[in-house]
């Protein structure tokens, strides 16, 4: 009788494990980012990179011996309200993982808060939010959530990398803070003044301006303001068209500024804007840049991505976000959202840019950051052009995720 009981139990467990794949052959992931409006090109980059990662997971056989990923694509319209509507739409379609980050921190915050409320009311339909690009430190700080994971280095980490580099640049003396008027822009200015000021107490901050996001077509009045203040450098969190239009206006005014930014080379149009301007140095920070030395896995992935999609490769972290999710699911041996979230906590992953770790206490991914400047091809520091120009990327400094890690106010409430 004892043998029969053990055999029946084992048979039940085997049937249950097999049922994971048979009951649900796909796990739905919902992409919620701008697919229309002035930042639609940014959304397209993210969706293409995420789809590439999803395809790679599926090509490896999916997760749990046969469960494939399926990505639903929804337009955030760069609006918190629209994103919350899209989130409910995604949940109604059966999505259990939400991919967001290219709509700005206010949108991501709204999605995370809405998801947390939904999960509390509907634990059997709980969703996890994977943030691939929003860099708001409060998302892993005082507004942290068990259901949210940040896959991009946050504002404080990026600014620390830039501050470390600016410390070595004595020619920078007068800095202006020009940023978009929303949470990210204000934070980029705040951390810029704090961390750069700490690294270089001799630097003068000669002015600060916030402007509407995605609405300014001519930045010449702002450029004139910076010039009148005597700025030789600007700390700007502008991205997409807002950065490219700023570069154009400065060029038209023959104003040779230095720019310090978080993602300039990881979006289309900025390198051509610099090449066309021929003046101004744009220095930015990311987990990788095309042509970066000693990162052969990322270069190989960039070539494979270009061959498959016909598009340039910008952001390794966006591609490996679904791959890390897959690793967590296989570690958890479950499609249960709580178990997947717990498996993500503390997870280490050997990515194409080197080992990365999801810090358990606040769900901040620790990944390397490369300070680099968009510069003319010289065959030495810059070996190849980008986006059809003779400008590429010069590596200035490289920092590990652990070197840039910051303290956190996060106090996660776990289910």
Automatic annotation (TrEMBL):
PANTHER family: LEUCINE-SPECIFIC-BINDING PROTEIN, PERIPLASMIC BINDING PROTEIN OF ABC TRANSPORTER FOR NATURAL AMINO ACIDS. The keyword Signal applies. Residues 1-23 form the signal peptide. Keywords: Amino-acid transport, Signal, Transport. InterPro entries: BCAA_transport (IPR051010), Leu-bd (IPR028081), Leu_Ile_Val-bd (IPR000709), Peripla_BP_I (IPR028082). This is Branched-chain amino acid ABC transporter substrate-binding protein. Residues 26-365 form the Leucine-binding protein domain. The lineage of its organism: Bacteria, Pseudomonadati, Pseudomonadota, Betaproteobacteria, Burkholderiales. Belongs to the leucine-binding protein family. The keyword Transport applies. CDD domains: PBP1_SBP-like (cd06329). SUPFAM superfamilies: Periplasmic binding protein-like I. One of its GO terms (biological process) is amino acid transport.
């Amino acid at each position: 009788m004892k043998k029969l009981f053990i055999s029946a139990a084992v048979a039940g467990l085997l049937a249950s494990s097999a049922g994971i794949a048979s009951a649900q052959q796909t796990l739905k992931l919902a992409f919620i980012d701008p697919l229309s409006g002035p930042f639609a090109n940014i959304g397209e980059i993210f969706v293409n990179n995420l789809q590439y990662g999803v395809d790679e997971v599926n090509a490896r056989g999916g997760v749990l011996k046969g469960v494939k990923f399926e990505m639903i694509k929804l337009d955030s319209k760069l609006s918190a309200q629209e994103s919350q509507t899209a989130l409910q739409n995604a949940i109604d379609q059966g999505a259990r993982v939400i991919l967001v980050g290219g709509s700005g921190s206010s949108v991501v915050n709204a999605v995370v808060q809405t998801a947390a409320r939904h999960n509390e009311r509907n634990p059997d339909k709980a969703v996890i939010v994977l943030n691939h690009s929003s860099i708001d430190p409060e998302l892993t700080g005082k507004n942290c959530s068990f259901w949210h994971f940040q896959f991009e280095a946050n504002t404080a980490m990026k600014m620390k990398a830039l501050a470390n580099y600016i410390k070595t640049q004595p020619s920078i003396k007068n800095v202006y803070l020009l940023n978009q008027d929303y949470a990210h822009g204000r934070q980029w200015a705040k951390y810029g003044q704090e961390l750069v000021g700490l690294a270089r107490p001799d630097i003068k901050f000669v002015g600060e301006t916030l402007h509407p996001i995605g609405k300014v077509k001519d930045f010449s009045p702002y450029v004139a303001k910076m010039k009148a203040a005597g700025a030789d450098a600007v700390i700007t969190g502008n991205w997409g068209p807002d950065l490219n239009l700023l570069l154009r206006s400065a060029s038209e005014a023959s104003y040779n500024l230095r720019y310090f930014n978080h993602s300039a080379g990881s979006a289309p149009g900025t390198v051509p804007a610099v090449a066309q301007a021929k003046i101004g140095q744009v220095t930015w920070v990311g987990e990788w840049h095309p042509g970066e030395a000693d990162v052969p896995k990322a270069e190989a992935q960039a070539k494979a991505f270009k061959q498959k999609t016909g598009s340039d490769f910008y952001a390794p972290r966006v591609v490996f976000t679904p791959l890390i999710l897959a690793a967590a699911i296989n570690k958890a041996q479950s499609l249960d959202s709580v178990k997947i979230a717990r498996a993500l906590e503390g997870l280490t992953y050997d990515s194409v840019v080197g080992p990365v770790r999801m810090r358990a206490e606040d769900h901040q991914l620790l990944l390397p950051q490369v300070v680099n400047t968009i510069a003319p091809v010289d065959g030495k520091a810059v070996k190849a052009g980008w986006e059809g120009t003779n400008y590429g990327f010069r590596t200035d400094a490289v920092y590990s995720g652990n070197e840039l890690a910051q303290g956190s106010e996060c106090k996660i409430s776990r289910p």
